[in-house]
Amino acid sequence: MKVNDLKAILKFSAKEEAMFGRFDLPKDAFYPMILSLKVGGAWSYSTGDLKSISVMKVFTTYNEETGTGHTIEEVYLFLDPEYVSKEGTVYRLEKCGGRDERALVTRPYSVTLKAKRIIVASISTEKKKIFIKELDEKTMSFTGPSAFYAAHEMEHLEHIEIDGLPMWAFEYEEVKS
Q1: 107 is a domain residue
Q2: pTM score over 0.85
Q3: Which residues form the Retropepsin-like aspartic endopeptidase domain (predicted)?
């Protein structure tokens, strides 16, 4: 690693710690959000008295005239989340942590979660900035992929083993043109 890269990472980490320190929460409460920001995806974390999950929403702005676009990622951090509602059933392939293969699982199409606190980080690829704020709202609803991720992370917090039909239970079939 180059010295300039290492300096930039250390500077970024110091700013990150200062930013998250403003919310008067234990540092480990932010682990799911930090992982979502740095690695992507949704994450969960729990100790005896603290539970948190991160859930991502991704939007794309695209300019037809210039042929360019940008994504905006919103990473929601839920502190001590609980379900308010779950609706629908979606069958999807999913891989989790230590599993070697994907499995067919069921997830709700939409979920509504409530939490003691909700903090959102909006990442603008256009401005190269991460905007962080605490929401006044204590409930959030998600549909589609964001709902799937939320349900998956809630299972982790509830210590439910994620189980499904393994990929090798599927069959290949050739389609003739």
Answers
A1: yes
A2: yes
A3: 32-133
Domain presence at residue 175:
no
> One-letter amino acid identity for 31?
Y
CA distance 115 to 26: 16
Q: Output the domain CATH number for residue 110.
A: 3.90.45
Q: What's the CA gap between 111 and 83, in Å, rounded?
A: 7
Name the pLDDT band for 61 (thresholds 50, 70, 90): very high
Q: How confident is the model at residue 88 (pLDDT cuts 50, 70, 90)?
A: very high
CA distance 60 to 62: 6
Buried b / exposed e over 55-88, threshold 16 CB at 10 Å, is: bbbeeeeeeeeeeeeeebbbbbbbbbbeeeebee
Answer yes or no: is 63 within a domain.
Answer: yes
Query: What is the extent of the structural domain holding 51?
Result: 3-169
* pLDDT value, residue 37: 94
* 97-150 pLDDT per residue, tens: 777 788 999 999 999 999 999 999 999 999 999 999 999 999 999 999 999 999
Residue ranges of E strands in 22-81: 43-46, 51-63, 68-79
Total domains present in the chain: 1
End-to-end CA distance of the chain: 51
